[in-house]
TrEMBL record, chain A:
Stretches assigned to the Winged helix DNA-binding domain: 21-96
InterPro entries associated with the record: WH-like_DNA-bd_sf, WH_DNA-bd_dom, WH_DNA-bd_sf
Source organism per UniProt: Jiangella ureilytica
The protein's name: ArsR family transcriptional regulator
UniProtKB/TrEMBL annotation, chain B:
Keyword Cell inner membrane on entry: no
Keywords, alphabetical: Membrane, Transmembrane, Transmembrane helix
Signal peptide (from-to): none
Keyword Membrane among record annotations: yes
Record's protein name: Transporter
Lineage per the UniProt record: Bacteria, Bacillati, Actinomycetota, Actinomycetes, Jiangellales
Membrane-traversing stretches: 32-51, 71-92, 104-122, 134-152, 159-179, 185-206
Superkingdom of this protein's organism: Bacteria
Length: 106, 211
């Protein structure tokens, strides 16, 4: 099975879908720290960085490096563009499932 | 084409549900740490006060050392406050942004509220008999707590928090109208009990949300 043309290839890959789904659970205006996202997804820092890089390239996530006291912190959040892309993706997936269910029935 | 990374629509939806539930579940599992310590402090602290005051009888229900009930109540409340501070600091290491700023301002509101209301009550308490003095501090503290929970419900759009705050306000009024010993008993059972139940309900829903 190949990727259907209407599914966003940036999101339609296991690791990146998991990243975007986890970030989508936060209310707009909130961001997750990098170590917490890593813990939730159980990914290595290197692996997560690579996928975040691709999502950042598509401007789906915003990565902010700042300081909390003296400690450096990295925050990750979905951009409004990323949230819209995720909503479109879930809508497309649901439509595919509904279509498949429709064709199976005589 | 076989790609191990290729997802079927069913797998996609399952992954989305799992990761969203994992984040929501971790958040809900901290809620118990906000409610349970305060529930236990009220239940044990006001429970000892009720035993000492013996509502409905001429003397105490149990013979306790004079300073014990209030000392236990204050120590347990200090511990509960410490757990609240540590829990919110831990949450801030996970999630930042608007929620954290709301929480920080809300926490400052609690500190400012109790920090100014207690001296105010002290100003009037000196003119009251001892049992009424205890009722004044007890009933106003619970009323302020109830109002702050209701305000919290408006901040986080959380109806369960509104119900909890509203419940505390109503049972507090009922207890205060019934009199000093009764107020302690009502706050221990209906107030502390409600906070303990709220904490346990949050734990159960968090477990259910875990994948």
């Amino acid at each position: 099975m190949t990727t259907p043309p209407d599914l966003d290839p940036v999101i339609h890959a296991q690791a990146r879908l998991r990243v975007v789904a986890a970030l989508s659970a936060l209310p707009t205006g909130d961001h997750m720290t990098f170590p917490y996202l890593q813990k939730v997804l159980d990914m290595t820092a290197g692996n997560l960085s690579v996928h975040l890089g691709k999502l950042e390239e598509a401007r789906y996530v915003e990565i902010t490096k700042t300081h909390q006291g003296r400690r450096p912190v990295t925050y990750v959040a979905l951009t409004s563009r990323g949230r819209a892309a995720f909503d479109d993706y879930t809508t497309a997936i649901r439509a595919l499932l509904d279509g498949a269910a429709g064709t199976e029935q005589p | 084409m076989t790609n191990p990374d290729e997802l079927t629509p069913e797998e996609s939806l399952r992954l989305i549900a799992r990761e969203q539930a994992a984040v929501a579940g971790r958040h809900r599992s901290s809620i118990v740490l906000y409610y349970l310590p305060w529930g236990l402090a009220l239940f044990i602290g006001f429970g000892l006060l009720a035993l000492d005051q013996g509502p409905g009888s001429d003397g105490p229900w149990a013979d306790l050392p004079d300073a014990l009930p209030l000392a236990v109540l204050f120590v347990l409340m200090a511990l509960a406050a410490a757990v609240t501070v540590v829990t919110s600091a831990r949450e801030a290491r996970r999630i930042g942004g608007e929620s954290t700023r709301r929480g920080a301002i809300y926490g400052a509101g609690w500190a400012l509220g109790f920090g100014t209301i207690f001296p105010l009550l002290g100003r009037f308490a000196e003119h009251l008999p001892e049992d009424q003095r205890g009722l004044l501090f007890g009933s106003i503290s619970v009323a302020v707590t109830g109002v702050l929970y209701v305000a919290g419900a408006a901040i986080w759009l959380d109806w369960s928090m509104f119900v909890l705050g509203g419940w505390l306000l109503v049972v507090n009024l009922v207890g205060a109208l019934a009199g000093p010993g009764w107020h302690s008993l009502v706050i221990a059972v209906a107030g502390g009990g409600a906070l303990i139940v709220a904490g346990l309900v949050a734990t159960v829903t968090a477990r259910r949300a875990e994948p």
